[in-house]
Amino acid sequence: MVKSDLRSGCFEVPFVSQTVGRVPQRRNARSNRARILATARQELGRNPDITLEELARAAGVVRRTLFGHFPGRAALLDALAEEAAEALQAAVAAGAGATEPADRALARFMLSLWPVGDRYRMLLALARQDLGMERVTGILEPARIRATAIVEQGQRDGVFHSQLPAAVLSAGLEAMTVALLEEVNTGALEDDGTRVATTTLIAAGVPEEQARGVVDDVAAAPSASAPS
């Protein structure tokens, strides 16, 4: 509604009338962006070479909408990488303050990270070609630091074997986790994280029966789940 100022003879448009219509637009834009990214996570896992036009159709948006958010493939992958980095940092931080034996700490670490890795595993197929290994290294760095610290603690306490230096053993466990995520990509493996966490403990030197018990116990605790 237009309001007149009788003293000045001017007309004044209330501020709220200019902004009310923008709120649904912003919400719709955020919804479209989230839907595009969710679709990209799914479709890139099936076909790393999918085009942006095909992604737009799969997301149920017009081509112009997708390109308005992501002007090219690089921008889309960069957004996915940023999402993955934030989710990984949150998962790493989830159990970082806990004081507990190293086998429980490693189980909690793996159970927190596996859902994140599973959600963004399509980035593995795109890492070298599209993202570059430097970017991937930056994403993984917080997890690598935390994993190495847990392994060092476990070796000091005699919980993990000491056949390899902590950094080397940690790198080996990471490589195994990446290989298992790639097996999920191929459809050869399905896991909620418990089998992978158990296997990781065994690889670190924990007896199988003990590893299963530790993972089952940690998995039953609400704090073992990764942030959404």
Provide a concise account of the structure shown.
The protein is mostly helical and 228 residues long. It is built from eleven helices and two strands.
Helix content bin: over 70%
Total count of helical runs of at least 4 residues: 11
Order of helices and strands: EEHHHHHHHHHHH
Q: What kind of assembly state do the chains in view correspond to?
A: single chain
- Principal-axis shape: elongated
Distance between the termini: 43 Å
Largest sheet composition: 2 strands, antiparallel
- Beta content: under 5%
Describe this structure in words.
A two-stranded antiparallel ribbon has the order 1-2. It has 11 helices and 2 strands. The chain is 71% helix and 3% strand. The longest helix is centred in the N-terminal third of the chain and has 25 residues. The chain has 228 residues and is mainly alpha-helical. Helix 3 crosses helix 4, helix 5 packs parallel to helix 8 and helix 10 crosses helix 11. The protein is elongated. The N terminus and C terminus are likely disordered. Strand 1 and strand 2 form a beta hairpin.
